[in-house]
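Thread: quick sanity check before group meeting

JM: Hey all, I'm pulling together slides for Thursday and realized we never actually wrote out the predicted structure for the chain we discussed last week. Dropping the sequence here so it's in one place. If anyone has concerns about the input, flag it before I start.
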Amino acid sequence: MSLRLSTVILPYLRWHEGGRATWQRAEQLGFHTAYTYDHLSWRTFRDGPWFGAVPTLTAAAAVTERMRLGTLVTSPNFRHPVTLAKELISLDDISDGRITLGIGAGGTGFDATALGQDPWTPRERANRLAEFVPLLDRLLTEDSVSYEGDFYSAHEARNIPGCVQRPRLPFAVAATGPRGLRLTARYGQAWVTTGDPKLYEDGTPEQSVRALRGQLDKLSDACAELGRDTDELDKILLTGFTPDRARPLASLDAFVDFAGRHRDLGFTELVIHWPIPDSDFATDEKVFEQIAMEAAAQLG
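JM (edit): ok, ran it. Output follows.
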């Protein structure tokens, strides 16, 4: 099974002070997709520069030609399906059909309260995602949509001419719970996971592999319930949040070993964080580039 290598570029650099060059370099290195986080602010970056995902991807689309682009991930925390759909159709057009929408339920970070609301409970986040994804699917595939739900409404929302990618741009759904996996099976073209967060602090790489195998089994069950072949879905692992942490990026050999184990589990795409000095994503840039250019050949 082939394995694609992608990267995620956090939007903390001014465009003319390293931002544009980073996205262009990602394409030069041969990454399949370059994603960015879709947050209003995030963790230790909260008090520093942080730019919007959609404008950043629009700019990236204008200075790249082949590499796919996407969010990893967008959530309902501060998004509405009607306005998001319009932005996505525009972005898909500007990029000539190179956009993937990573989407998930969101969490309890800064995004959850930035609009002045109380953080939603896990159940409410799941309820909102269960309404958000089907409505967004309709908005991206139908010329005019009217809808009244528990959380979202649309009144004759028009999205002509629709996406360049048909019937719409692909959804990569981040989910590990039963409801989220059912959404993935019904609406997703890909599935995204970061592993089991309970293992991050004190777990082992072996425990993580077992947990990921269990998640993949549950995804297969969700697909089987709908009569869908799980092989139709790409399986994406966003690295850096398993007990391995940054160790797979310490050397080419370490990464090839890590990537091979996860390819054998059934993953079709691994995403590695672009190096950021003095952060949790600090990595030797020469080793990072060596991995980008040479790992795929060693993985076969």
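AS: nice. The longest strand covers residues 68-74. DSSP finds eight helices and ten strands in the chain.
JM: adding both to the slides.
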